[in-house]
């Protein structure tokens, strides 16, 4: 059963991701004790306010792929020094935070 404070736990982790780093939905799920709920983490972030307090742009999928349709995400990551592969995915080897 998912606890009532699941959303708060997700946001607490997201706020800890340093500039220039990214993490994954699955890593966040693992860190809050729900390793099989990466999709729920994604759904939680999809409905969040995209603000500077909660840097949701620093969360990508396991392959480093950005959120489809959120063009600003790439720009925000570039401003923080995040680098990308030719296919447009984040260079996870260089920027993964866990």
List the helices and strands and how they pair.
Layout (H helix, E strand, L loop, with lengths): L5 H9 L8 E2 H7 L6 H9 L12 E2 L10 H9 L12 H4 L3
Parallel strand pairs: 1-2
Helix pairs in contact: 2-3
Write structural notes for this entry:
With 98 residues, the chain is mainly alpha-helical. The protein is 39% helix and 4% strand. It contains five helices and two strands, in the order αβααβαα. It has helices at 6-14, 25-31, 38-46, 71-79, 92-95; strands at residues 23-24, 59-60. It has a two-stranded parallel sheet. Helix 2 (25-31) crosses helix 3. The protein is globular and about 40 Å long. The mean pLDDT is 94.
How many helices? The count is: 5
Described by strand count, sense and barrel closure, the largest sheet is: 2 strands, parallel
Low-pLDDT runs? none
The radius of gyration over CA amounts to: 13 Å
Gap from first CA to last CA: 24 Å
State which percent range the strand residues make up: under 5%
Q: Order of strands in the sheet with the most strands?
A: 1-2
Number of strands: 2
- Helical coverage, percent range: 25-40%
Mean pLDDT: 94
Identify the overall geometry.
globular
Order of helices and strands: HEHHEHH
What structural category arises from helix and sheet content?
mainly alpha
List keywords for this structure.
globular, 98 residues, single chain, two-stranded parallel ribbon
Summarize, please.
With 98 residues, the chain is mainly alpha-helical. Helices cover 39% and strands 4% of the residues.
């Amino acid at each position: 059963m998912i606890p009532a404070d699941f959303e708060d736990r997700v946001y607490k982790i997201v706020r800890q991701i340093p500039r220039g780093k990214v993490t994954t939905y699955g890593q966040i799920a693992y860190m809050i004790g729900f390793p099989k709920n990466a999709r729920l983490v994604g759904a939680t972030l999809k409905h969040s306010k995209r603000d500077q307090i909660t840097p949701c742009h620093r969360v990508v999928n396991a392959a480093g792929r950005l959120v489809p349709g959120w063009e600003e995400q790439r720009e925000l990551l570039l401003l923080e020094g995040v680098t990308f592969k030719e296919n447009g995915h984040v260079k996870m080897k260089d920027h993964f935070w866990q």
